[in-house]
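#lab-general

N.A. 3:47 PM
ok so I finally got the sequence cleaned up, no stray characters, all 315 residues accounted for. can someone with queue access submit it? mine expired

B.Y. 3:52 PM
send it over

N.A. 3:53 PM
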Amino acid sequence: MIERIKIHNPTDFGKVAVMYGGSSSERKISIRTGKAVLDALLALKVDVHGWDTAKRNFVEFSDAKFDRVWIALHGSGGEDGSIQGVLEWLGIPYTGSGILASASAIDKIVTKDILTGKGIPTPAYRVVTSRGDILKAIEEFKFPLILKPSDQGSSVGMSLLSHETDINKAIELALSFNGIAFIEEYIVGEEITVAILQGEALPSIRIETPHKFYDYRAKYESKETKYVCPGINDVRLENQYRELALSTFDSIRCEGWGRVDFIKANSGKPQVLEVNTIPGMTKNSLFPIAASKLGIHFDELCWRILETSMIKHQE
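B.Y. 4:20 PM
back already:
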């Protein structure tokens, strides 16, 4: 892990762009993240400007002479290494993970392949590209199962398959994005997430929802979803999850900040579900909840994430 570079004067950041919006399926969430970050940095006197990548082009961006970028884009075009590649080419430092880690983390199949190779526990899975593949995987794993597109965040396109599920509809949805999906073993247990900031794992969060699993509605629409922080009462087990989150983060070569999601099986054993390189960052998002437990308020958190761009500047 790279040590934190502390910045005390907002002028040291120079002219900053907060990139948000984009054209992915997570555009609405990205706009919420971007505007929250923009307001926070403005309150701290940073010379910061909003930039919706779906509405403004990169010739205009290059002409604006930004010194660095706070990336608040979610999904394809922003969280997949694309924008990171453009900024590398322009020589502009940015927050968070680089090209390789971003591309690896957004592809859940690549992530699971890496985790499996590193011996990091993750639910059993099978890659599927057709209805026939999915039906074979269902026979192998048995119900219930999770069906996920390979490259979507915020649980977009995800289905819990059971005898009552409209299988054809779920298959059509999962394969509608890039034609590649995967079947994953469904593990009964608690959803746990661990945020990582500048080399430190923050207190875990346990997600409690009346929904069958933590889907898009539970994340962004339900008023019944609850977040408990820290999420694990046993100190030894809490530390185990934090250490595994750091190991997972490193295995994907992530940098700066991010979040690792787990399912805590009834046995207590952790299983890594996925890695988020650009988690949601509204004031009610999971990452700020965890940071607040360490006394890091939202504005300071946005500042500290912006500090991660200074490491790339040094490199």
